[in-house]
C-alpha cells in the first residue's frame, strides 16, 4: 500500500468574483504522508484545504479522496477526514468536556465517553475537562481543536497552521503529539505553516503556492536545492518575492 493515493487533485481552480484564489492546481498525496502546503499570505493554502473538504465548490477541476469523487461522495468522505484550525472556533461558553461531547455525538461516535477520555489523555487535557472553553490559553485551545479533530479517527487530518500563535515550547509539544499520532495511527496529514524549520521537521513533501499557482513540489531538501538556497526559509523568500523558482534550465536559457 506504499503508493496508495488518498487525495488526487486535478486542474483545480477557484475564483471569488475577480479574485483567482487557486489556479489550475494538480497534485496527489499518498497514504500516511505528511504533506505541506506552503506559500505567502494569500497564496491559496486555506482555500485549497477548504476545497479538499468540500466546504467550497471548485470553479473548475476535480478532487478525488480515497479514490472517490468529492462532489459525488462528499458525505462518505467527510466521515473519514477532519480539520484542525484556529478559525474553527468552538462555543466558548461550553466546558471542554461538553464541546467534545457535542462533536462526538454529531460524528456518531459509538462509545463517545471512552473516545473522549482516550484523546484527552493523549493531548493532556484531562485536567481541563470542566474548564469553560473561553478561558483556555492558545496552547490549550490548539490541543482541544486537535482533540475534536481526532474524535472520528480520521484517515486524513487537515491542519491549517496548527502551531500559529504558540510559544516555541508549546509548538514543539504540539509537533511531538502530531508526530506521535501520525506514527502510531498512520494518519495522512495535510499541513500548513509559515515556520520553515517546522516544515522541515514535519513534512515528507511540500507544495509551494504563489498567487494560487503551484510553483514547486518535492521534499523540503529538493526544493532547497532547486532554489539554490541555503535553507528552506531562503527558498520561501525567493518564491514569495518573485512568485516562482528560477530553475537551472531557465537560467541556462537566459544565459
Ligand atoms: N470567501 C472569499 N471571498 C473572496 N476572496 C477570498 C475568499 N477566500 C479567500 N479569498 C482570497 O483568495 C486568496 C487566497 O486566500 P487564502 O486564504 O486561501 O490564502 P492563504 O494561503 O491561506 O493565506 P494565509 O497564509 O494568509 O493564511 C486571497 O487573495 C484571499 O483574499
Ligand atoms: Mg490561510
Q: Give average pLDDT, whole number.
A: 92
| pLDDT < 50 stretches | 248-255
The hetero molecules present are:
adenosine-5'-triphosphate, magnesium ion
Structural class: alpha/beta
Distance between the termini: 45 Å
Helical content class: 25-40%
Order of helices and strands: EEEHEEHEHHHEHEHEEHHH
CA radius of gyration: 19 Å
Count of helix runs:
10
Features:
single chain, 255 residues, alpha/beta, six-stranded mixed beta sheet, four-stranded antiparallel beta sheet, 10 strands, 25% strand, globular, disordered C terminus, binds adenosine-5'-triphosphate, binds magnesium ion
Fold blueprint:
Elements: E1 5-16, E2 19-30, E3 34-38, H1 45-52, E4 60-65, E5 68-69, H2 74-78, E6 81-85, H3 96-106, H4 112-122, H5 138-150, E7 156-160, H6 168-185, E8 188-192, H7 196-202, E9 205-210, E10 213-218, H8 220-226, H9 232-242, H10 248-254
Parallel strand pairs: 3-8, 3-9, 6-7, 7-8
Antiparallel strand pairs: 1-2, 1-4, 4-5, 9-10
Helix pairs in contact: 3-4
The structure holds adenosine-5'-triphosphate (ATP) and magnesium ion (MG).
Q: Could you please describe the fold and organization of this structure?
A:
The structure is a single chain. The model is unreliable at 248-255 (pLDDT under 50). Helix content is 38%, strand content 25%. It contains ten helices and ten strands. The radius of gyration is 19 Å and the shape is globular. The strands form two sheets. Strands 6-7-8-3-9-10 form a six-stranded mixed β-sheet, with helices on both faces. Strands 2-1-4-5 form a four-stranded antiparallel β-sheet, covered by helices on one side. Helix 3 (96-106) crosses helix 4 (112-122). It starts with a strand and ends with a helix. The longest helix has 18 residues, at 168-185. A hairpin with a 2-residue loop joins strand 9 (205-210) and strand 10. The protein is α/β, with parallel strands linked by helices. It has helices at 45-52, 74-78, 96-106, 112-122, 138-150, 168-185, 196-202, 220-226, 232-242, 248-254, and strands spanning 5-16, 19-30, 34-38, 60-65, 68-69, 81-85, 156-160, 188-192, 205-210, 213-218. Adenosine-5'-triphosphate binds next to strand 2 and helix 1.
